[in-house]
Amino acid sequence: MSYRGAMSARVRSEARRAEIVRAALEVIAERGYRGASLAAVAERVGLTQQGLLHHFPTKDALLVAVLEERDQWDAVPDTRWRVDLLASLVEYNAMRPGIVQTFSALLGESVTEGHPAREYFTERYARVRENMAAVLRTEYGERLPNGLTPERTAPLLVAVMDGLQYQWLLDPESVDMPGAFRDFLRLLGEPVD
User: Fold this and answer.
1) Distance CA 121, CA 33 (A)
2) N or C: which end of the chain has fewer CB within 10 A?
3) What is the pLDDT of residues 23-72, one digit of tens each?
4) Rounded to an integer, what distance in angstroms lies between the CA atom of residue 58 and that of residue 49?
5) List of long-range contacts for 119-125, beta carbons under 8 Å, 24+ apart
């Protein structure tokens, strides 16, 4: 196979993997991780289950790819998060309920022993708390106006973001997720329009 042919095959394979990940997101959003089958994902993209296994050898490998893809959507390239960007992220999440639902369902399921996403979420939350503490330290220094350190406030910030997502998913007509998050930022001492 020529170099050009190999590159073309690689590009097609990457495109197919991305298509499979998007289909897996949809199936997981509809059925939850435990209810989602490789056969359902394969059917959605027009593959046999064996064809899907060529790209993702296990359901767990596909799940990790789905979670990593979701994290890429929230990444801020070549810069650090700022408190005002967190409010923008919450607003962005309010425009994509299917993704938020999938993430929330997987997060909820991952707290059980032996769940394939447990390690992923444990490591992710450690990293997110660390990043949020850095955001708060940059914004406020070693003490926030409320007297707490960035390390003590970071888990609260993450809990508010994720807790609002659950409430909003359950009752989107009653819970203004972006507005409630801006209210929380006011409690931190952040001037919010």
Assistant:
1) 14
2) C
3) 998 888 787 777 889 999 999 999 999 999 999 988 888 888 888 887 77
4) 11
5) 120/64, 120/67, 124/67, 124/71, 125/158
Backbone angles phi, psi at 62, to 5 degrees: -65, -40
Tell me how long the chain is: 193
Residue type, 64: V
Confidence (pTM): 0.73
Question: How much helix, strand and coil, in percent to the nearest 5, is found in the chain?
Answer: 75, 0, 25
pLDDT tens digits for range 60-89: 888 888 888 877 766 554 456 678 788 888
**Contact between 99 and 70 (Cβ < 8 Å):** yes
End-to-end, the C-alpha distance of the chain in Å comes to 59
CB-based contact 83:136 (threshold 8 Å): yes
Please check whether residue 66 is in contact with residue 24, taking contact to mean a CB–CB distance below 8 angstroms. Answer: yes
